[in-house]
Every structure is written in structure tokens, then in C-alpha cells.
Design brief:
The structure is a homotetramer. The first copy, chain A, is mainly beta. Chain A is built from two helices and 22 strands. Chains in contact: A-B, A-C, A-D, B-C, B-D, C-D. Chains C and D meet through helix 1, helix 2 and strand 20 of C and helix 1, helix 2 and strand 20 of D.
Chain lengths: ~300, ~300, ~300, ~300
């Protein structure tokens, strides 16, 4: 149950079977850092090229295809005092005929700057000047992108997501959440990055408040427990992520994974599982911006037998 | 500012330009009843044929095309001690290859029965027998379907929804909410029905706990305020509904309507409106069962300038 | 087997249970006219308001819910020497980020004019002036919109389509085709209009070359033959239409209807029907512009046992 | 302008930046072989694992990111006398509620066998026994999957497709067609495989008649011509492929690429290009089975100025 301090010196903009940067045992913790979506680190320096560069991959000893990797998100700490966002809702999120009427930014004006204050627990809009003034929001750090190496030797751009995780941009992946990921390759090969100081549902401007992180997580392996999509758990909910376009299909994946969870893992009889979900299920919109959209199917722990 | 007691003696299973059952003034309140989705009333009697029969339409004096109808939901009270649900998640909500593996009910076994207790504020599963036992949920009454007569003389099945409202099945339309609907015909012609004692997000089994209601609402007209999709407001949120398939398009409608709200009604500058939504917007899934799906785009009142 | 000459004096912009304009017997033929999508007749006069006004409905004696209405398209003749189209591909048909870069027409410049020459069998672009010059295409007349009154008392805008037919905008509905429609109400109540002198797949600019028609058709009723979606037949193909959004769902409807046709009507065993479709099926894109899109599933008659 | 004979000894089941198996010059031709979708070669031997194994990649000298790779399909010849298909339409292609009623094959009965006769030019169903008897179809060989290494170091499963090509399963890619692909990496890295002796539109059973091929192709490079999606050309059409889900988005990609072709490559003014497409465009359904669907936007050469 060691705690590993890991200082990254290179990053990957795909999630795949890259050479591991560190090998850890189930039960071990890792403390490391991530750069922002453009490859800038805590000092603001561009240390790698952009596009959601990942820290990792981390090889978890004993993890084999068909197992489940458990990742507890111990620490998600913004490690610099500023972040940035895009300023316009993405064209795919509004009615097609409204697209020309949107506030298309002039070249070089595409980004807004935000001040991030860990002590105050706030994120504050600095510029541009708008009728919002110094809009201040509660800090709510989350990694936009994390996952394990996918099946078949694929290496998938960190712009998108799939059964292996990836760029899900779900604001519910906060500190304290336990994540479950299906293992496709020996060692699982966990990657993480793309920190957001705060983000709205859907990541509809294409970014959260993009920032570098100090990250801490603890891994474990559930041998022989096969899951099909990323899952998570916090104090009040269990939840499953589906990643696909359109949202309808993302919803199908997430819902099907939750049915499996209730029936196969929790032992609820099928009729019971379906009746229960019908009247208590909740959905969150992860992202509706990336190539694959993300829907989250949640069940309150309070209603589970 | 009269309060009208109205006892329905017929119902419509389309929302359209039907002869009004009552004419009311802006500011007036109506107290009436609705039957359940199969046309059964508070005594359990089948008083009309099934398919979400509507009470109404109510003609609101002075409402003209281009205005906005305001409906405050004063009372949504289950008026009988039992309701029913379907028992299986709908095939369109799960992965296609899982459809044959679901608990398809035998003929005559398609429904579950629930006890509804207004005093205790609970809904309790009575049958079938499952591992859930007497699952008890908090009562949360909402009308699955309401709206105004659509444009162009259309009469639209209460199975579906559109810009005029309809079968949105959004669990957020609870007592105390103020609803805004675009007016397409003189008098607006408001219809309401399809009460649910409780419902999960998405109405994924195709029903909430279906029940008859005592309903009270107060109407008003905003002259010359043109909106394009149903809107609502509660203590903490303003929200807009988009109704379409796929969910992507429903989300586009709802998001576009919220942009209009922020820019046109609240006077936020476009860049400000987009930046604000990007980091604070929330989405709820209304339904993913009906012919048109419903997505809700919400903004917390606390972040509005 | 009478032939009825019918001169319309009013039109409907919904397809629904309107009072019939004529009652005909199975086997009878009707010769009538249709106005263009804006309500202009053969003399160019605006005789009704726009939005795909329909001629009809025609009541076919003996047609009852659960039967199939057969309509043979005997004559589809442009009855004036000019038509019009829109000039820009619809925003929903291109990538969202390309929408602002399209040739948005100035107000009053939204339409192109075309000369229609029945004798030469051609349609020729007259204006605007473009690098196309006097682009000349072969005449291929088809009604964009026709159908029968839908179920449940619905009246559906002629902008859209459904199981009852409607605004399918499929260029394959040409003279000589036999159409099959499910009957939902006594008399079926057949409507027709929205003639196009020519049209590309998908109706991607939102119009064909819009024009008024002389129309002739012969009706029949297949008692007790229940179909679920519009079907058609020409010399070389049988085909089924699915109308929905997204195209994926339209394709599901059309494919499912073709499976029914092969198995239930033609008596092919299920495994045979599926194998046959797998290697010989063809699809046409009806429209990708209207609220409901249309996909056509076709099977070559030559491969049917 | 050499002709290279290349005998593969290993295969890739992703399309990516793998070590090239051969380096060729623009203008050169390659003659090689491909195995079937399960990795079986012309002698029926399993020479690699399944999942659309690719022959290649071939490095084309001088091809750089931003160029266009030209591949002329010289020869697509079935090199063994039999192939196989699946027997059931895929669940995602039919209405969800019909999925349980389909002819789900017993384990071990999932495949049909077909005889392939190059001399007769036919493909004949051998088993299972169905009411189709010895159904015989004209041979129409096409590669289901080909493409170039994608951007950003991605390695994408040959189950799916994207801007780089991949598993498009479009029956229009026959002998004699010229294919254009965007180049993302030096040398382009062309892969090809997954031969089909014949296939219906949409590949709705998940396979064509799967078979090994003798393949011949000639490559060229268009320096500095940037395209965004795969394109093709035969005697009568130019066409563009869009690969995505849902079909709506695939159609958007293909249509946008065709607009670029008309405006940027052929110099048609924007208004002219849009008017022309509106009345003459055609669409083919490539596949509606794979993770990304494929739509083809075609323009008849006869109407191009």
C-alpha cells in the first residue's frame, strides 16, 4: 500500500497501450500532476502539445482483461491560480438555424480567463468584460478525461471516449468518487488529465475552466468482475457512463450497464430491477460536445435493497 | 381573479383546437380533476378511453398568437389511493442486443400496482412480488402531459409533445412551478392530464405511477412576449424544455430557448450569456420514451445577474 | 369503376379527419388538381394559404381501420410552365460549424425560378444567375406530400410525416407507382399535394421545383390486410417508407416494414427473409429536411422467390 | 511506375501508424492479397486473428499531411470459391420492440455459406436451407475496409471508420473506382482488407459475403490538395463519404464535403453549388451496422458544369 510520487516528463494525446510510466500494486496510491488541455503546466509553461495530454499510463500489477480496475479519486487540486474557457456555445448544441446568430469570437478572442482561488473555493471570470461582471462560481474540480487502454490495440484520441473511459467531461467525477473501469489489457494502463476547475453540464462551450492539477488516486483490482462501461460511486449514488452519439445511444449504454449492475452485482431480480429504475432512476448529461457524447445513469443508494 | 370549479364530462386524447370547456380571465384560477392515462377517474371508473385523456381545453381571454400563456401549478393532488406502472424498461432505452434478454411480461402481467398515501407522502409497491419488497418512495406528483393548442390547426396525440407542450413527462413540473407556453391560437386552449404520483427521470418504463389528480392552476397572459418552447420557473431555477428526437435535437431546442431567455428577456449580452451557460448550465432528462423526447435546460437563479 | 373529375375549392394544411370532398368506390379513379407548396395554382394565383395545402380528403367507401388503401398514381402532370426552389442547403444537412459559411440569401432573394417544359421533358434554371447557366434537368414529377387521416383524431401538419404518409418528399413516388397506406379511419381520407417537377434525394434545400399538378389516381381497398408504414411498388422494386428522426429510426421503421412484407405477405421464412435482405436490400433517402425524415427500404423484385 | 507484388505475412486489426510493409512511389501499382474478416486466406486457413485484418500499411513516398492520397482500385478478385454471411438483420437496424421476434440463430448456426463463381460471375447461397433455395446473385466484389493512418497517432479498430476511411462497407467501392483519402501522416500508410463478394446496402446483417481477395491498386499523391473525408469517383458520379452516428451526422459530413468539392475543387459559385445539389444530389447508404455509420453523397458528372 505504497504511495508513489510521480513527476511526469512526457504525455500522450491518445489513450492506448503506451509504455507505462510507473508500475503500481493494487492498493497503492499515486500522487502526480496533470497539465491543462493545451499542455500547459502549473507554472503556465507549455510542456507538451495540446489536445488533452494525459499523465500516465500507470500499470496496475495483476489487472487482466476481464477484471475491473478501481480508481479512488483522492485529490483533485488546481495547482495554479488561473484557467481558461471558450466563450461560445458549440454549434452542435443549438438549433442549426441559430448558428449564424451566435457571438462568433474574433480571431484571438476565443478564450475567457478565470481566476482560481483554492482558499476561497472560487472561480472568477476576469475577462472578457461582459454584463456578468466578475462572475464568481464555487470551485468544483474534476478531470475531464481519464481511462484505461482500449481493446484490440486501439489508441484513441483524448478528444473522445468509449467503453474504456476517455474524454467524458462529466462534472460528477469529483474528489471522493470511486471509479470502476473495465480492463482490456494487462496492467489496465490508467491515464488521467484535462483538469477542470469548474464545468457546466454538457461542457457546452467545449471546455470547463481548463487548468493543471495536483492529482492523487488509489487503485485496486477486482479480479474476474467484468463490467462493460465506466462506473462510479459517491456517498449517495451509484452511476454508469455511456459514451456514444447520439445521446440516445449513450443513454442506452448507460442504462444497460445500470441494469447489469442491479441484476448481476446487487442480485436484484430482473422485474424488480426494472420496476425500481422506472420510478427512481436519474440521468446526468456528461458532455454533448465531444465526438462521443456522455450520459450518466444514476441510482440513489437509498432505494437499493 | 375568480376561482372556477370545473367538473369535466369529456376528455380529448389530442391537444388541439377543440371547443373550449371553460372561458377564464387572466388572473383566474381553475380547480378541476384529471383522469389517469387509461381514462380512469378518482373512483377507479373508466370514464373515457385511454391514451392520456386531457381535461380542457380552457380558453384564456385575451391570449393571442405571439403571446405567452402563464400557468402557475397551484395544486397537484393524487385523488385516489392507488396507481399503476409498467414493469419493464422500454426497448428503445437499452442496447438493441439486450432487448431479448429483458423481463418481458406475460400477457396480463404488464402492470405493477402501487399504494398512494397523501398523508404519509409515500408511494408503495404492492405487486408484483419482487426482491424490492414493499418499496416505498416519496410522493412527488406531476402532470405528465399539458399544453396549448398547436399552430396550423394541428391536433397532436397526447402520446407526444412539441413546441406547444404535450406529453413531456418531466418530473420537474411539480406544485409551485410556473409554466410558460407559447400561444398559437386565440384563447391559448390549455389542456392538462396524465398525473403521475412519482416518476423517474426519462419515464423509462413508459409510465410514472399513473393516477387521477385534483388539479388547481392560475393563468395569466404576457401580451406580446413571444417564446418558442415551453419554459418553467421554480424557486431556484429557470428552465426551458425541448421536445424532439433524438435527444440531441431536444437538447438543441432547449439550449437555444435558454439562450433567448438570457439574451432577450434578461438582457444579458450574448458573450456573457454563452460564457455563463458554459460553466453553470444544467440539464434534466424529461422523457426518453415518448415519440418526441424531452430535454430540460436549466439555469440556477443564483448565477443570473 | 367510375372516373371522377374533381375541382377543389378549398385545401387543408393538415392531414386529418376533415370532411371529405368526394366519396369514391374502390376501383374508381379521380382526376383533380393540386396547388403548389405556397398555395398557388396553375394560373399562378394564390388560392389558399401556404404550407403544402392538400387537395382532398377523398373518402373511399368500404375502407376501415386495419385495411390497406391502394393508390395507383396514374398521372402527375405539371400544369404550369414554371416552378421555384430554395437556393441554400438547409442548415441541418451540413456540419454545424459550416452553417455560417453558407450562401445565406438576402431577404427577398431566397428563391430560384425554373422553367418547366412538359413537351421537352425538362426543367431549366432561369434565375438567379450562377455559374450553372441555364442548368437543364430531366422532368421527374412527384407529389411531395400525400397520405391518409391518422389515428386517434390527429390532424398533422403537412410539413411532416408519419405512419399515415404525409410530407415524405421521396422522389420515387412517380407516375406508375402503386402506393399502399394503412387505413386508420373509415373511408381512409386520402389527401395529396405539394407537387415537385424534379427533386434531388433528401430535398436538401427544403424544396423540389415546386409546382401545381394535374393529378390522376385510382384507389382500391385491401380488406383486412394490415400494414404499418407506407409502401410502394414499381416495375422493379417493392419498397417501404419509414418516417422519423433521426434517419436511424426512419431506417428502423422502413426495414421492419420490409421484413413484415417479406415474411407476412410473401411467405418467406424468417431466416430466408433476413439472409435475402442482407445481401440485396437497397435504401433511398426520401427527405432529410422535414421534421420527420424519410428513409426507403427497397427490395428488387428479381430476387424475390 | 513499378508494379509491386506483395505477399503479406502479418496483418493489423487497427488502422494506424504501424511500420510500413512496403514503400512505393506515386504512380506505382501494388498487387497483393487480403484475408477475410475472420483472418482466413484463399486456402481457407486462419493466418491471423479475426476482426477485419488489414493488409499493409503501404508507405507512399512524398505523401505528407495536408495532401490527398489517390488510390485507383485496379483489381478486386475473389480468390477462393466460397464466402460466408451472418443470417439475421442486426438489432440496431429494426424497431426496438421487434428485436425479440427476429430469427435469433442457435449457437453455432450464426453463419450462412455461399459459393462464389468468378467465371459465372455469381454468388450462390449453399446453406442454411430456406425458402430462398439456391439464391444466386451477381458477383460485385468490394473491400469493406480500407484507409490511411489517422491523425494524432490514433490507431482505430477496423470495426469502425472516420475521416481516414476504415470500415465504411460501401458497396460502391468496386473495381475501377478512384478513391481519394486525406493524408494525416508522412507516407499516408494505406491499409486494405475485408473483401465482400457481394453486399446489400447498409451491410444490415453485419457482413457481406465475406471472402479473401486478390487486390490490385495504383497510388498517386495530390500535393497540397486538402480534403476532409474520403471521396471517390467512377464513370458517372463523384461522391463523398461521411462516417459517424447517427446517420444524420454522417449525412452532414458527406454533404459538407461535397459542397467543398463543388466550390473549392470545381470552382462552382456557392449559390450555384447549393442550387445544383438541391435538385440533383443522390445519397447511398454505406453501412448502418458498424460503430460509425456511412452515408455517401453523390453528384452525377453529367450535371457538373
Amino acid at each position: 500500500m505504497a504511495t508513489h510520487q510521480f513527476e511526469p516528463d512526457h504525455y500522450f494525446s491518445t489513450i492506448g497501450s503506451h509504455p507505462p510510466v510507473l508500475r503500481v500494486q493494487p492498493g497503492d496510491s499515486v500522487e502526480t500532476t496533470t497539465v491543462d488541455a493545451r499542455g500547459h503546466d502549473s507554472s503556465g509553461q507549455a510542456v507538451t502539445s495540446g489536445g488533452n495530454p494525459m499523465t500516465g499510463p500507470f500499470y496496475v500489477e495483476g489487472a487482466e482483461p476481464g477484471d475491473t480496475l478501481v480508481v479512488h479519486l483522492d485529490k483533485l487540486l488546481c495547482n495554479r491560480p488561473y484557467g481558461w474557457t471558450r466563450t461560445m456555445v458549440a454549434p452542435n448544441v443549438v438549433d442549426p438555424e441559430q448558428v449564424p446568430n451566435m457571438p462568433w469570437p474574433a480571431e484571438g478572442q476565443e478564450l475567457a480567463n478565470w481566476r482560481v482561488d483554492n482558499e476561497a473555493g472560487t472561480v472568477t471570470l476576469v475577462e472578457p468584460q461582459t454584463s456578468l461582471g466578475a462572475l464568481t462560481l464555487p470551485l468544483a474540480p474534476m478531470p475531464g478525461c481519464f481511462g484505461v487502454a482500449p481493446d484490440r490495440g486501439e489508441a484513441i484520441s483524448t478528444a473522445t471516449s468509449g467503453p474504456f473511459g476517455g474524454n467524458m467531461d462529466y462534472r460528477g467525477f469529483v474528489e471522493g468518487v470511486t471509479v470502476y473501469l473495465p480492463v482490456f489489457v494487462p496492467g489496465a494502463l490508467f491515464h488521467i488529465g484535462d483538469g477542470h476547475a469548474v464545468q457546466g453540464d454538457g461542457e457546452i462551450v467545449g471546455t470547463g475552466v481548463e487548468i493543471s492539477f495536483d492529482v492523487g488516486f488509489t487503485v485496486d483490482v477486482q479480479k474476474g468482475r467484468r463490467i462493460y462501461w465506466p462506473r462510479g460511486e459517491n456517498e449517495t449514488y451509484i452511476f454508469a457512463a455511456g459514451n456514444a452519439r447520439p445521446l440516445d445511444q449513450a443513454t442506452q449504454h448507460a442504462t444497460t450497464e445500470m441494469i447489469r449492475w442491479l441484476e448481476n452485482d446487487l442480485g436484484i431480480d430482473p422485474v424488480g430491477a426494472h420496476i425500481l429504475m422506472g420510478q427512481t432512476v436519474e440521468y446526468d448529461l456528461g458532455n454533448i460536445y465531444d465526438p462521443a457524447y456522455t450520459m450518466i445513469c444514476k441510482m440513489p443508494k437509498a432505494v437499493l435493497p
